[in-house]
Amino acid sequence: MSASPIHLADYEALALASTDPATWAYLHGAAADGITHKANRSAWDQLALQPRVLRSLRHGSTRTTLLGHAMAWPALVAPMAYQCLAHPSGEAGMALAAAMQGAGMVISHQTSLPLPTVMAPVLHEPGRGPLWFQLYPQSDKNATHAVVAMAQTQGCQALVLTADAPVNGVRDQERRAAFQLPASVQAAHWPPAAAPAHAESGLCHGAAHAAFTWDDLAWLQSITPLPILIKGVLHPDDAVTAARMGVDGLIVSNHGGRTLDTALPTAHALPRVARALAQLAQAPGPAPVGRATGRPAALLVDGGIRRGTDVLKALALGADAVLVGRPCLHGLNHNGPHGAAHVLRLLRDEFEAAMALCGCAQLADIRSNDLVLTASQQKYNQ
Ligand SMILES: Cc1cc2nc3c(=O)[nH]c(=O)nc-3n(C[C@H](O)[C@H](O)[C@H](O)COP(=O)(O)O)c2cc1C
């Protein structure tokens, strides 16, 4: 490709062309047959927009507040392990890119750079988005406690507990490509013996017996005042359980199709989860609120977000914000922090255009205007 990239898929093509096949299998790959990975994308495409016209667009803004943090627009970089595989600037470059574009970032527990190296350059940057730490709980509770304390000390504003990967997914692409983490790229805050090196067999490694449960969530809540979000919720009943336990946020996610293949696409799960949370809020008795924030659980979604219209659809279906995964790695891979920042900029510009074309001046207009039709509505409700 000679011209400069103009949308996110251009960055994917550029990253593919310059990355060795084994590293690509890790950075871009999915579980098993990649059915969920593909479905995440097509599910957003299949939602049709019915835009509103002749509405005032004066005082248009994408500004929002997420768990009390003011943001320029509702997007965060998803937690992704070992970003030094994509570019030597790794997670530090990604954090800079997110801050430059007013997006948030969730730093993976398997960050390849130490947390202070990632956080310090952006912590006091005006206009940056929220910085959260993603947690893979370890069977050794002392180790989990220590990493939570470190995240808190370093200034992370929330914990994201990943619940959909108690064991590795079946990563056929990585195994076929014989992917191995190079010695130069390792997890900075994960004991080497325990590291769930995704290059290995996709099976249990004896980890399943130590899998984190709802009881352990209560323990986690007891050791930190930080807001806690659960990432990897697809079932509405799990969302209700989490909200009843006072979690501060939920991320509807299937890990970008990297864990359980054939799990439902997030664009389909999101409205079901949003409906269950709304019903819970209206049920008799006090509405459940987050333990740290005292507000109803924030709702986020990721998986296949590639266009500004996807961001708009996610908000229309009940999300407060989106997370973006692979495209940010593609941008980082192609042109370091500038590439990742450009990816976010492209998405933000597209989102603003989508808002204006749907007659929405503010984010609240997106939720209240019945903008999205599902495939079945398109077919039967004529
Ligand atoms: C290379 C890579 C590494 C990832 N590492 C993590 C991780 O450490 N923790 C986690 O919760 N999710 C991880 N994920 C999943 C992402 O957070 C996110 O759920 C997914 O990438 C969103 O889908 P998308 O890539 O289609 O945007 C990873 C994804 C990729 C592509």
Description:
The protein has 382 residues and is α/β, with parallel strands linked by helices. It is built from 14 helices and 12 strands. An 8-stranded parallel β-barrel has the order 4-5-6-7-8-9-10-11, surrounded by 7 helices. A two-stranded antiparallel ribbon has the order 1-12. Helix 11 (308-316) links the parallel strand 10 and strand 11. It is globular. The protein starts with 7 loop residues before the first helix and ends with a helix. The relative contact order is 0.20. It binds flavin mononucleotide. The site of flavin mononucleotide has 22 residues, from loops.
How would you describe the shape? globular
Small molecules held by this entry: flavin mononucleotide
The pLDDT mean sits at 94
* Rg, nearest Å: 20 Å
Give the class from helix and strand content and strand pairing.
Answer: alpha/beta
- N-to-C SSE series? HHHEEEEHEHEHEHHEHEHEHEHHEH
The largest beta-sheet arranges its strands as 4-5-6-7-8-9-10-11
Helix count equals: 14
Proportion in β-strands: 5-15%
Give the CA-CA distance, first to last residue. Answer: 43 Å
Q: Would you count the extended β strands for me?
A: 12
Helical content (DSSP H or I, runs of 4+): 40-55%
